[in-house]
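Example record

The entry below shows one chain as it appears in the dataset: sequence first, then structure tokens.
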Amino acid sequence: MPKQYRNSSLRCSFCHKGQKDSPNLKIIAGPKNVYICSDCVQLCLQIIREKGGKTSLQWGENSVPPPTQIKAHLDQYVIGQDSAKRKIAVAVYNHYKRLEVNAQEKKEGDVEIQKSNLLLIGPTGTGKTLMAQTLAKFIDVPFVVADATTLTEAGYVGEDVENIVLQLYKASNKSIEQTQRGIVYIDELDKLAKKGASSSSSRDVSGEGVQQALLKIIEGTTANIQLRGKSHSHNQETVQIDTSNILFICGGSFEGLEKIVESRLGKRSMGFLKKDKKEEISAERELFAKATPEDLDKFGLIPEFIGRLPVIATMQHLDEDSLVRILKEPKNSLVKQYQKLFRFEKVQLEFTEEALCAIAQKASQRKAGARGLRTVIESVMLDIMYEMPSQDDLSVVTIDADTINEGTPPKLTYKDSVGVPS
């Protein structure tokens, strides 16, 4: 425990203040005759809180990594989707570079650059949420995910749209400055679309209302956030957050959008005259990539909301080859995660190439993208993970195609087996 002193001859080794400068000052002794005063301790704590306990990354003279480095980092976690990653890398770089430029030019009274929020369109399980999450971690800014289906207009039962900003504030370790530089990902945006003038569904009405409620926050406004935990207080504490510099990334599967694009282009209905499933998926990819704001308007998003999302990136369907790559290539791939779990028990886990292909094939049949991979592996690994901690002499577990397809037990190798070191 550091010892505190009230000796008038001692001075802080950092600010050089002593007891004579401030009667209430406390001097704390460190190693090798180094001292720090209570004022400097408070300053250090304030800096830590504002930075959220993290150190800002630096890329040369810039505080923002260039698009090539952003994409290279995304490549380590998200397989494929090169076109979308390039668009996102440029948009994110421009967004945070603009914050630096605007801060400088605000002093000079020059033109202020407006922000460009993003819209990610693509099937479920293609990496939309992972992309946004990986970006936020790399740029070192607060990040939250909001589900659009749980949001409601003010006055309705449910989650108010301003609660998104409150969650970001909490994620920033309650730093207003960091909150105003954060990233918000709003998932399932397509569920807010209107279903047509003839529909009377309450979800449609509420969905359009939520779009209206999101407009100001996404474009930029000063939101008065009520801090929870003080609901019984007459003087409820509020925090003002300017959302002008918060980057909003919205995502959704937008099922049926390809038919709207197809109708606009005058092409034949998909599914007919196609030789196989690969051609059908390829045609759907092409249609998604050609989606325009007008197509989104017909889908059911209101024009004002579409205008707040000027950058549109399309995520492609994942074929079986991509799913195999997702299983083994990313830094946090499922195979690597399970292998690490087995290492805790001093057991080596191996998957044959045929087993990985079988897992990808089963996941593809579920039509859940990369999310289906974990479901398939979990069902296969349950029994062996139940038994493994009780088998001290177990050395290697090998998963082959029969284990995936037929449910046969995996091949087990024990430490006392021939050729296996004990």
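Notes for this example: The chain has 16 helices and 15 strands. Residues 164 and 310 are 21 Å apart (CA to CA).
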